[in-house]
Amino acid sequence: MTDKILKNADTRMKKSTEALTKELSSIRTGRASPALVEHIKVDYFGVVTPLIQLASISVPDPKTISIHPWDRNIINNIDKAILKSDLGLNPVNDGNNIRISIPALTEERRKDLIKIIHKRLEESRVAVRNIRREAVDELKTSEKNKEISQDQSIRASEQIQKLTDSYIDAVNRIGKDKEAEILEV
To answer: Residues 124, 16: contact at Cβ < 8 Å?
Structure first.
């Protein structure tokens, strides 16, 4: 019973850190990356669809993202979606492709991005702690229902705490790496 609770908590905490990594990859640095725009939602004939499902996205050089829509009829929709996104990018539409030049980050913009990163990191740490709390509550319920002993509950709670600490450390490492990437000139 305790193994099942621990495994479930571990799986959920891992998913939480993976979601953080994916989310932080969309925060732009001074370099072009397909991850920057692939999540942008585009209106495709009334259906809101992620850009990655509508076009091939490439990086011909470190400062440029090139988007090649599979259906040329939606190129203006893609253009509008990029302009509406909070990324601050200016797409250039040549009728067949969209090119986005990634401007150098200003010091002020870097600070703003770091604030956003810190907010996302805290949200991720809270999510991990909530998973811990739910797992400990599940252990207490199992103990109360006489499914596990008090000793098993205490041992499992300690293991959950160690698991939580390791995932919080992972979240902090992910944040430091992203911060260093943004501060890199």
So the answer is: yes
Q: How far apart are the first and last CA of the chain?
A: 51
54-97 pLDDT per residue, tens: 899 999 988 889 999 998 888 989 988 888 886 777 889 888 89
Domains along the chain? 2-25+106-183 (1.10.132.20), 34-101 (3.30.1360.40)
Tokens 């669809």, located at residue = 49
- Give the 3-state secondary structure percentages of the chain, helix then strand then coil, rounded to 5: 60, 15, 25
pTM: 0.69
Would you call 49 helix, strand, or coil by DSSP? strand
Give strand pairing partners of 48. Answer: 43
Residues pairing with 59 in the sheet: none
